[in-house]
Amino acid sequence: MGWLFRVLAGPMLWAILFAAVYALHGIGCARGWPAIATPLGNLHLVAMALLWLTGLALHVLILLRLPQGTARAEHLPRLGAGIGLVATLLTLSPVILISTCG
Amino acid sequence: MTGPVRPDDLPDPLPGPAAPELRANPPQRALRLHRELTRVWSDAPGFYGWLASVNHTSIGRRFMATACFFFAIGGVLSMLIRAQLATPRGAFLDSALYNQIFTMHGSIMMFLFAIPMLEGLALWLLPKILGARDMAFPRLSALGYWCYLFGGTIILISLLAGVAPDGGWFMYVPLSDKTHTPGINADVWLLGITFVEISAVAAAVEITVTILRCRAAGMALTRMPLMGWYLLGTSGMMLVGFPPLILGSILLEVERAFGWPFFDVARGGDPLLWQHLFWLFGHPEVYIIFLPAAGALSTIIPVLCRTTILGYSAIVAAILGLVFLSFGLWVHHMFTVGIPHMALGFFSAASALVAVPTAVQVFAWIGTIRQGRPQLHLPMLYVLGFFLTFVMGGLTGVMLAIVPFNWQAHDTAFVTAHLHYVLIGGFVFPMMAALTYWMPLLSGRERIPRLGEAAFWLILIGFHGTFFIMHLTGLLGMPRRIDIYPDNPEWVLPNLISSIFGMVLSIGFALFAFDLALQWIFGARSRRNPWQAPTLDWAMPLPAPAYNFASLPLPGRDDAGAILALARGEGILPGAPRGWREVLVVEPGSGAPQHIAVLPGNTLLPLATAATIGSFFLLMLAGLYALTPLALIAIVLVGWRWGAFMGCRQDPAPVKAAPGLVLPLHWTCRATLAHAGAVATLVADGALYACLLFGVGFLSVVAPQWPAPQSGLGTALTLLLALPCLLALGLASLAARRTEALRAEAAGRRWALTGVLAGLVALVALAGLALMLDDPRRHARDALRGVLLGFALFHVALALIFAWRTWCDLRDGRMGPARRGAAPVWRLWQDFALATSLVSALLVIGQEVL
């Protein structure tokens, strides 16, 4: 089962990040975070971007820690980690591209 | 194959316990083994045998046949729709009946055809392709079938009685609330579909456990047939994807029955919560349907192209990508409801991204065809029909993923055309390929030539004639679900063309069914392995016997070439010398043999259980809420009998499965199939609870009429009542652990009794808390608290039943030093009840404090 969890690690992290960023987006809009300024920008944007970047760093960490090799047993976990990384990179990229609550 | 058999020597074995060096059993007379196994595994004779069957071959066939019956009914309804729309002022159906018919068409096709069809295929095929004798939980298969049949029958009867659901197959509120749908039409949908979904969750649990634990010895996950990966992905999605729909249905039914305002804007609810819950299920549902069909394609294409599949790892990765990404798309069904642009961006990106793993599979299949020598047998025709249709559906899907286009095409016939391209292209064509491919294994007979080809061309031409032009109808602005369009002459011709070709399509499906019936009744006896396939499903006589394999495949010998050796008993566990239904249980990753599970035989218990569950749903439908506790008691009484299989009075001796391989029986093991099944069930349960928390969060943040009115439930009082409950649940969790550890001693019984008493205390405390709650009809927050409390009550009661079962087993000597009985499962449920109750308590306290 440990091997299966390694395969699932990347996509599971994406699922957690996707849910967390979506929740943060909803909470921020309801609580008026876009109107709160911080040195890095408005609080809403900063909170979501930080979460996104932290998630990306975790994805890279997972990818680096997985054993290297060409055998299927080693290849599949790395494919899983790659899927998670690309999914997080693309699906959550709107946090820096689009206005938050409009 | 009489000499020693070498263990699997694949280049990339999974880490984990290695399969032991196994030697073949000595050969025996195949006919004697066949008779011995048939006596143990086959259904009892006569009508009783039909009712009491739990065998996966019988149940799987039954699921598929019933699904085809519902498909025929759904098809007839679609012909009525097309007849109505053939002219702009169609007088064929009145508006009210038309509403019922299009709602029933969608509901039947999705819930009574597509899902049960894939369940049936999985139940019938999985053990055969994985080298097992049955599914992990045969009684659960049968229970699922009866729930499906009874639930489907309720829905069908409502159509005949003129009270069928009429709010569209996704039952949006407020249209389906009590004010706008005062009759029982919506209740039929909510209760009937939930009843049917019991079978989906049951199937998901046992498909998951069967794939992970009931494979051939040494069949590591990395070399499992792709069909196994596809169905593992499907079952995982079903475990997480169906709970949102079940929760949504429960909430809406409770609102309709008791006035709890989850979706009523005036009292803190929000109709969008229904849309979120429905599409949290509804979009993954598309992939739940597609994945098994894709599994069939990945199995059939290499066989009919005389080659091996191209890109095994890429396909597994694509399955993984689809399984997860498909849960990030649901909001693309809600692009027009006024969601902020950034959220639209998340879901639009995910919707576009999900096309990538789909494309990976399509290219892998095309590459496989390119590298092989394709043979245009009938299944291959349907495969080609799939390519043409599904790729077009996928492309319109990418169009709809783009927000500006979606706004234009939303709720038009374009969407209807797209979903039919995806569902018929991605599910019906592959399923027809699968049926024609596996018919020799199902029926033992060969096809009658040419009729099937005629049916294929009628279906292909009829389908594209109907739905291709429907894109244009949609782009011309025709909305879905209208019954007349007298002021839009530009829609007349495309609708007439769609209706004419719709009839051609229906004739094609009828001819397909006629062809299958002819094959079953009049076809010549099929030769073994007619497609010369390499997979294990063809390593058995035709039609498949009830036990599948006279002996189970040895490591590295899990292909169709082992057919004679397996029939002679040279594999693992030959025959049924103890008169039990025995299956091999393996380590999930490596496939190393772990123990032997004894499965229950023919029994009426699943039928009785489904009948008691059905009585609950019928009482709810009739509005006899006061009588529903009687049905619940009946369910508990029948359910109690299921647990009798978990204990035994003596330490069973280990079984010699093969020379050098002696394995314990499941009663003496901890990591049993039942334990794995409980974990899988809790995954589904956890998903339901997570959706409930999402509901609380969503309404708190988004719904108008919040904050809620002042609560009469003070923080101190909540703590006062919640604390004893949580302490009692903590004690019960400790008791479950200690009972399992001390089961051989008198202290074990005392701990079990402690667990029972602690559970009772927790129940009483929860009941006290229920009395203190504000009126749940006042505001959505109060209603959600009522649901959280109900969730806790249900799980504490369930854990209490497991505790009671364990205590009874200890008292009756059905547990012992080597026998754990139900204790490990009790512990799982007890911990889950504690964890969710703790979170709920913190949530309520948090609401009060913040």
Description:
The complex is a heterodimer of chains A (102) and B (850). The longest helix of chain A has 30 residues. Chain A has one domain. Chain A is built from four helices and two strands; from the N terminus they run αββααα. Chain A is elongated, with a radius of gyration of 16 Å. The model of chain A has no long low-confidence stretch (mean pLDDT 93). Chain A has a two-stranded antiparallel sheet with strand order 1-2. Chain A is mostly helical and 102 residues long. In chain A, a hairpin with a 2-residue loop joins strand 1 and strand 2. With 850 residues, chain B is mainly α. Chain B has a domain of 143 residues. In chain B, strands 1-2 form a two-stranded antiparallel ribbon. In chain B, helix 4 packs antiparallel against helix 5, helix 7 packs antiparallel against helix 8 and helix 20 packs parallel to helix 24. The N terminus of chain B is likely disordered. Chain A: Keywords: Membrane, Transmembrane, Transmembrane helix. Chain B: InterPro entries: Cyt_c_oxase-like_su1_dom (IPR023616), Cyt_c_oxase-like_su1_sf (IPR036927), Cyt_C_Oxase_1 (IPR000883), Cyt_c_Oxase_su1_BS (IPR023615), Cyt_c_oxidase_su1_bac (IPR014241). Chain B: Keywords: Cell membrane, Copper, Electron transport, Heme, Iron, Membrane, Metal-binding, Respiratory chain, Translocase, Transmembrane, Transmembrane helix, Transport. Chain B: Its EC number is 7.1.1.9. Chain B: It catalyses: 4 Fe(II)-[cytochrome c] + O2 + 8 H(+)(in) = 4 Fe(III)-[cytochrome c] + 2 H2O + 4 H(+)(out). Chain B: It comes from Szabonella alba.
